[in-house]
Sequence to fold (371 residues):
Amino acid sequence: MILVVTEGPGSMDLYSRRLAENLNVPILRTDIYQRTGRLFNIGWLHPRAISSFLIDWGFVRKLNKPKDIIHLPNQHLGRYGNFLKTPYIVTVHDLIRYFDMMNYDTFIHPPNLRDRFYLDLDYKGIKKATRIISVSQATKNDLVQHLGISDDRINVVHNGVDHNLFRPVSERMYGEPYILFVGSEHPRKNFTAVVKTFALLKLERRFKELKLVKVSPAGGREGEFRKRSLELIDVLNLHRDVVFTDFVPAANLPAYYSGAQMCILPSLYEGFGLPILEAMACGCPVIVSNISSLPEVAGDAAIKVAPQDIDGLVQAARQILTDDKLRSEFIEKGLKRAAEFSWQKTAKETQAVYTQVANELNRDIETRKAL
Fold:
């Protein structure tokens, strides 16, 4: 078994790194996922689009050198599975780009012709995989429903959280009370709902000092994500009360979570939703949307609200801000819930998938020999 580890700052890169740290298997490191991610929304004749053919071909050759099972750690590496000579496993974190491609909704950005070609390869590669690991039951359901993949070919293995890093800390990033949002400004993240919720809370004098802190870059270059956010903030006259930090090193995130009054993630779609576990592990109360994978991950340790229900989000946030007993209850529940997830557990369950695949392949070999 060979695990591909992608270099980069994203959550899917983190997944591959944490597996590598906790699994005793050979590793193939690459930055190809970061390279391909920067190519969204460019045309076929763009110089980087042309050079990417050579990069892709070189990576396929590298994957085909070892005669072993390959684990591709995210769905966008599925495109390379189409050209592999050996069996392979692929982890699917979400089907966000698939839904954009099929025009079900705009969760990130409508793909152009070149994007559609490569995304189609991704999903064909997923279908051809020997086995698929899904990071949530919600994503598994999407794979079955939308890609027509048989239920028995998919193993659900939840992501973990690093409890050595994410824990309550005394350090504080701001003196004022603040609501925290961690994530991009892609349409699926529903940041606009957070801004509108915050605007309504600010109408109450008791929340005059309250701030909204938004951690993480806006998103890729394919859309004007930050521009849209700033336009809404300007209309609502919130420019003095909303703080954008963009990229924050992982080592600093616990201070952001620990100091927040709450973390809100009212996403329209999430394959998993790692920030809610990180927040819980740091003793930060959480409000999430009641759809997609978030109820699955949060359990009973978060307040769940329909993502487009602004009044409901305001009411939930107001409760956390004013009811100390309720706030303490969700802090305690969150700490217990987060403790159920670890990268060691993720790795152990992933190793079980490796063993299952190896045993199935060996049985197939023995059966063919017998025939």
